[in-house]
Amino acid sequence: MSKKIVIIGAVAAGPKAACRLQRLQPDWEITMVDQDSLISYGGCGIPYYVSGDVSDESELRATSFHVIRDAGFFENSKGVKALTRTRALSIDRKEKTVLVENLDSGVRQELPYDQLMLATGAKPFDLPIPGVGLDGVFAIADLHKAIEIKKRIAQGKVSRAVVIGGGAIGIEMAEALTDLWGIETTLLELAPQLLPRLVDWHFATMLQKHLEEKSVAIFTRESATELLDDGQGKVCGVKTAHRTLEADLVIMAVGVRPRSELAKAAGLDVAPWGGIKVNQRLQTSDPNIYAAGDCIAVTSLITGRETYAPLGSLANREGRVVADNMAGHPSVFKGVCGSFIMKAFERCIASTGITYEAALAEGFDADYALTSPSDRAHFFPDQAVVILQLVFDRKSRRVLGLQAFGMMNDSISARVDAAAGLIAQDGTIEDFGLLEMAYAPPFSSAIDSINAAAYVAENMCDNRLRRVDLDRFLAWMDNMSIEPNWAVLDLRHPLEAAPYVEKYGVDLWTALDYGQVRARYNELPTDKTYVILCNAGTRSYEVQVFLDHLGKFDSMVLCGGLNVISRLGVDWLVK
Amino acid sequence: MSKKIVIIGAVAAGPKAACRLQRLQPDWEITMVDQDSLISYGGCGIPYYVSGDVSDESELRATSFHVIRDAGFFENSKGVKALTRTRALSIDRKEKTVLVENLDSGVRQELPYDQLMLATGAKPFDLPIPGVGLDGVFAIADLHKAIEIKKRIAQGKVSRAVVIGGGAIGIEMAEALTDLWGIETTLLELAPQLLPRLVDWHFATMLQKHLEEKSVAIFTRESATELLDDGQGKVCGVKTAHRTLEADLVIMAVGVRPRSELAKAAGLDVAPWGGIKVNQRLQTSDPNIYAAGDCIAVTSLITGRETYAPLGSLANREGRVVADNMAGHPSVFKGVCGSFIMKAFERCIASTGITYEAALAEGFDADYALTSPSDRAHFFPDQAVVILQLVFDRKSRRVLGLQAFGMMNDSISARVDAAAGLIAQDGTIEDFGLLEMAYAPPFSSAIDSINAAAYVAENMCDNRLRRVDLDRFLAWMDNMSIEPNWAVLDLRHPLEAAPYVEKYGVDLWTALDYGQVRARYNELPTDKTYVILCNAGTRSYEVQVFLDHLGKFDSMVLCGGLNVISRLGVDWLVK
User: Which of A255, A274, A291, A506 is most enclosed, with most CB atoms within 10 A?
Assistant: First the structure.
């Protein structure tokens, strides 16, 4: 028997569900409604459209075979009805109807449904400050906004921009403006770091340093307090607590909130922060109403708790699960790892699972293995250092997350994707140690970086490797009196270590070449706590084991070594 | 209490075990013996040394911090004794001693052991044909051979080469010779395809086509029957059943065999094909003797059966497991997926798990989902098509393998590595569908290629997608009389389809634009079996579902579409 399906929202989850369901139940009448005229677009591509990498906005709305996904496409090619410029006003759950209004004609109608899907997406959060309504102030809310931004840039109307918000979209927009249009761009982030909650502070710092090298001005712990009017209703500047920045374009990218007013008004369960609550089959509290995409609350596969993951990739997967369940094929969406990846100029940054900071806050016996291996065989010509961090629980030995920062290529994808698959299966450090990464020198090392990170984690759990906290070490370098007993033990080649020894003196910075430790360890004073360092941290660990065995030395390893330190923009020699 | 450990073999598994064990048990006396003077080298880097990508062989023996790993390094830096140029002659299991001989001095000694490790590696298989002993004939057995090959090339002594064996090493060597030295190179492979057992025939064919475009001459189903003498003991040519090839360099790369004579002579269990039998803790049939690396038989995680996987990456992981067990930390090596990846000029080819052909032979209810998606968002500038194939069991829905062929970058690493992790956990099609690949347009699609392949597999299992076998379709294109009822239904843009329609006639090659199917399906004769095709196969599946629903049409989908066909080197238009 044919059923009537109504889907509210036609960007990602909605169209995916509609088309899949039409294939599963070709007889059913499926109607999508969306208040926008442009539907089914790749919103994540907006920064690349603004930058010019994607030349026309229509490419974001086109199939891989270059056909625009508009209402006619859905009707003719997919057998799905799409009502655009049509706003859903209310849901009558008893009568099972949705009241919709055409935004052009004002005509209203009731759409009856047997099953309803909410794919209402998210809306950008607006800062509650004066001036947000000025001309030249944009949130990346939809394609229209992107088109307008690019038009202004192309017309030469933009020479200075301020991006408010240092999340992924803010950073991608800052890159687009700076790199390809040469616009003087400033990025503001209220949190103490970029990409808050997505990566730990040292990863954010490495990213920030690279962005600054690429001429993006960045202020953290700082946001806009007022947007300034040029007297004619156009934005001309941004005020913060510390400065006033000139700007003829302001991008608001301070996060998004689920669009769940409709769900709430219909009496469905909605989390206090706005996410529509769903079960694993993606049913709302009304079993005839499903929800998916940026409007729902999802479950973290790491913590088991409610979280928010507004990503186009998840929306598509969730949409498919909704279609299966509506069609009568039971299907579940268990939750999310929270995989994230981003290009930032010539670097790539990515993470999956949760950060060390989040893991501590969640009450895990959390620790992290920070490493800095090559992204392929160290003898292969175009190899480069990548910074990897495995976050794990010391007690259960479960891996909780992986973060990476390296060159702009796909090598980080490989590690983060492989990790996400294993984390979703509750993979342990030991599983990561044995993970069979495909090996050939142009792609990886014989001991892959992800295996090596797991080995480090294992050595930490078994108390063979004791690390110094990175921030504690940096604080000591700033003010050595806080730990009067500490000294660096530098295992690098004497020529690398020499300038540091010269600056700090041999008492604070002892150089002992790795290859000489077994012969010359007796020269080391035994009354110090050594911070052992080298370039990557591997030699430091070996030497710690050796010193421990002697039983006369106290030491800590600087995990990730100077490869990490140099990427943080710290150089005590030039200070 | 200190123990004595002897390790026979010091290339990959041996050194890894030795160094790890020294850290776990710093008091133990660990001695490695190796008959070679050069030890602890990255054998997989040999083709890149020969090509010149790696300029000096010492780089293959150096740490990431540029120190050569020789006997002195192991002694001074690692606390491990290494006896080079020392051959192990026999094992006395009762007395627990190994008799070794120094190959330079001839001096013999008995090395006592508490625990022994065999890391004797593999030796290249020599073809039993006349002329293998001629000057200029090389197997890639060790670094010395590689050094000699490169020396001859650099001296301009090589203008024509024949590589015997179309496995990974043979192909990498053929690339090294052709690409960087301009040597006229011919590759011979006795099997009907390159990379036999590693990939299915169509992947091998795509690879072969690319190699041929890059000027490597390839003959499959053909091997050397004789190597020809120039009258002065130097090779001057290679005879096969079909031709004689001139050659001043012959590389034998017809596979390797475990070196297990020592194990066999000592009465340890050895498989008939030569692999030393070990349990999951990598103990041989004598619990005091462990074995790891290219000399052992391992277990396939897919079939549960004995297999052979001589790879440096596995050797390292196994070596670590041996060390843990020797030290008293129980540790297991469960088996291998068989992950494999290779650069071939401007392409990358990779696989994990087992092939479709192998899965059928193993008695699985095997099938494959062949797809040809973009390797990143299809609107992103440098995107390119990648060919992916998921092999699965229809009954259990377990994924058995993944193969990929695409551009030379790391995007294939990401898919194969993520797959290997899941396959090792007995991942199903549904697990692959939900695998959370990190998404941003420069790296992936919103629906990642690996998710999409799983969706295809799911649709096949649920009988919504019925594919035509690729080889059956190609046979029909060669001789249409074998299936007189078949016709192509070409869904591509009419301009793409037109030349085919013109050549074959509308009865055999019907063009119907994807967007017009719902409006014009009535024009299609109902007495045909349609092979539906498009570029990638996605539209074809959708149209099959639509036609099935009408109940009047019989059809099959050409999975992977013309993207696959064109990469096979098939073009019926120019025939």
Answer: A291
Which residue positions in chain B have pLDDT lower than 70? Answer: 574-575
In this predicted structure, the answer to whether residue A121 has a pLDDT above a threshold of 70 is: yes
Which residue(s) pair with B370 in the sheet? B389
In tens, the pLDDT along A412-422 reads 999 999 999 99
In a mutagenesis test of the B interface, which of A51, A63, A64 is the best target, namely the one with the most B β-carbons within 10 Å?
A: A64
In sequence order, the β-bridge partners of residue A118 are: A8, A291
Domain boundaries, chain A: 4-41+54-122+257-327, 137-254, 340-461, 470-567
Give the count of alpha carbons within 13 A of A97, CB side only.
8
Q: Which of residues 8-27 of A touch B (CB under 8 A)?
A: 12, 16, 23-24, 26-27
Question: Which of B22, B410, B493 to mutate to test binding with chain A, by most A CBs within 10 Å of its CB?
Answer: B410
- A501 vs chain B: nearest CA distance in angstroms? 20
Q: Is B416 on the interface with A (CB under 8 A)?
A: yes
Q: Where are the alpha helices (DSSP H) in A425-488?
A: 429-434, 449-461, 470-478
- pLDDT for res B574: 61
B312 sits in which H/E element: helix B312-327
CATH code of the region B137-254: 3.50.50.60
What is the ipTM for the molecules in this complex?
A: 0.96
Pick the CATH number of B340-461 from 3.90.320.10, 3.30.1360.120, 3.90.330.10, 3.50.50.60: 3.50.50.60
Q: Do B436 and A424 touch (CB under 8 A)?
A: yes
Residue A109: how many other CB atoms lie within 10 Å: 12
Q: Which amino acid is at A548?
A: D
**Facing A65 at nearest CB: one of B312, B442, B535:** B535
Give CB contacts under 8 A, 24+ apart, made by B69-75: B69/B15, B69/B39, B69/B40, B69/B41, B70/B39, B71/B39, B73/A515, B74/B10, B74/B15, B74/B18, B74/B19, B74/B32, B74/B40
Q: What is the CATH number of domain B4-122+257-327?
A: 3.50.50.60
Q: Same topology for domains B137-254 and B470-567, yes or no?
A: no
| This prediction's pTM | 0.96
- Which chain B residues touch A402 with a CB distance below 8 Å? none
Does residue A2 sit at the B interface (CB-CB below 8 Å)? no
3-state DSSP call for residue A42?
coil
Which residue in the set B48, B54, B339 is minimally distant from A436, CB to CB? Answer: B339
Q: CATH second-level architecture of A4-41+54-122+257-327?
A: 3-Layer(bba) Sandwich (3.50)
A44 as an active site residue: the answer is yes
Kindly state whether A76 is in contact with chain B, defined as any CB-CB distance less than 8 angstroms: yes
Residue A415 to residue B415, Cβ atoms within 8 A:
no
Kindly report the CATH number that applies to the domain delimited by B470-567: 3.40.250.10
Closest CA of chain B from A4, distance in Å: 18
Chain A residues within 8 A of B60 when measuring between CB atoms:
379
Q: Are A54 and A45 in contact (CB under 8 A)?
A: yes
Instruction: Determine the distance in angstroms separating the CA of B531 from the nearest CA of chain A, rounded to an integer.
Output: 19
Q: What is the count of residue pairs from A and B with beta carbons less than 8 Å apart?
A: 305
Give the model confidence (pLDDT) of A156-192 as tens digits. 999 999 999 999 999 999 999 999 899 999 999 999 9
What confidence tens digit (pLDDT) does each residue in A75-107 have? 999 999 999 999 999 999 999 999 999 999 999
- E strands within B306-363? 306-307, 340-344, 347-353
